[in-house]
Design brief:
Elements (H helix, E strand, L loop, with lengths): L1 E5 L6 E7 L10 H15 L4 E3 L7 H8 L20
């Protein structure tokens, strides 16, 4: 499985989320083929920038680099749950 998320507000930006297969199919190149198909599909839809993320020790990190993704500096996300603050 490999998913493509399209940004409804910016039609030229998309993102890939989960990519991978069940254990018996791992390390056979399937994730690379799936991700490449998703990238080609994105290009055919007019997407010009695709974002993704993963931890650098995850094997998908190396696949993403091989496919041309560029690593960006780490970032922090912040969240507040308003119900907890009365």
């Amino acid at each position: 499985m490999s998913e493509l998320k399209l940004d409804l507000h910016h039609a030229v930006i998309g993102g890939t989320g989960l990519t991978g297969g069940t254990r018996p199919w791992r390390c056979k190149g399937l994730a690379t083929v799936l991700k490449l198909k998703v990238l080609r599909n994105a290009g055919a839809r007019g997407v010009r920038q695709v974002l993704t993320d993963n931890e650098e020790n995850n094997p998908m990190f190396q696949i993403n680099l091989m496919l041309g993704f560029k690593a960006k500096p780490a970032w922090l996300g912040w969240q507040i749950t308003l119900a907890d603050h009365g």
